[in-house]
Design brief:
By secondary structure, the chain is α/β, with parallel strands linked by helices. The chain is built from 8 helices and 5 strands. It has a 5-stranded parallel sheet with strand order 3-2-1-4-5, with helices on both faces. Strand 1, helix 2 and strand 2 form a beta-alpha-beta unit. It is globular and about 55 Å long.
């Protein structure tokens, strides 16, 4: 009888420990960026998987850098778009090399390239939007009951996806100082009394009064400078 009680107690403790382990895990939906942004996101995903979180990466079929056909420790959901990988690569190369780094073109040539790139990029975003917010895909995502959406600020529509799924939205990195773009465009809450403006200052969410004043001034300056 004593031996049976000892075995039962051991099993009970084991069940409790298993419950604690699974209780801390969650379901994370990831919207990654491309190129170096994907490599940055991959480090975060690996850390989440190491902590027993269930991770699903939502990616388009035209993604040039996210290897969604490869077997990973996490899952992929691939939504179809009409754009091809080669076209996405060409578009991004055109944005960087054809416009921003082209110093030999005239003013009129530069304006023409700019408008052409904008038109192509808008068409690409429309294609992404149609694939990402297809009713069948949204139904599948809602039925999966994710706990949080983790996204890269390079990818558009992440805040809208979080709103449709009614889950919290977390950004993997900051796009601008003082979170100007995230606050003004994405409505991200960032109270200056608790969220440091930039990492070059050794500030945390527990700032002194003087540090809060400095942080507030940083927010005001960068928000004013934002065009």
């Amino acid at each position: 009888m004593k031996y049976f009680a000892m075995i039962s107690g051991t099993l009970y403790v084991f069940v409790l420990l298993c419950g604690l382990e699974t209780g801390n895990a969650g379901k994370v939906l990831v919207l990654p960026g491309e190129y170096s942004h994907w490599h940055n996101m991959r480090v975060i995903i690996d850390a989440l998987v190491d902590r027993n979180h269930s991770v699903t990466v939502l990616v388009s079929s035209a993604s040039p850098t996210v290897p969604h056909t490869r077997k990973e420790r996490f899952d992929f959901i691939v939504y179809k778009v009409d754009t091809k990988k080669e076209d996405v690569n060409a578009l991004l190369r055109q944005m960087i090399l054809g416009f921003w780094m082209n110093e030999t073109s005239t003013k009129y040539e530069g304006n023409f390239v700019l408008w052409r790139v904008i038109a192509d990029f808008v068409a690409f975003l429309t294609d992404i939007s149609n694939g990402m917010f297809h009713e069948d895909l949204l139904h599948t995502l809602r039925e999966s009951h994710y706990d949080v959406l983790l996204s890269d600020p390079m990818l558009p529509f992440a805040d809208l996806m979080a709103q449709k799924l009614k889950i919290p939205h977390v950004l993997s990195l900051r796009a601008m100082f003082a979170f100007v773009l995230e606050r003004l465009c994405g409505q991200m809450p960032a109270p200056p009394s608790y969220v440091p403006m930039v990492a070059i200052r050794d500030l945390t969410d527990r700032m002194s009064f003087a540090e809060r004043v400095i942080n507030m001034l940083d927010y005001i300056i960068h928000t004013t400078l934002y065009p």
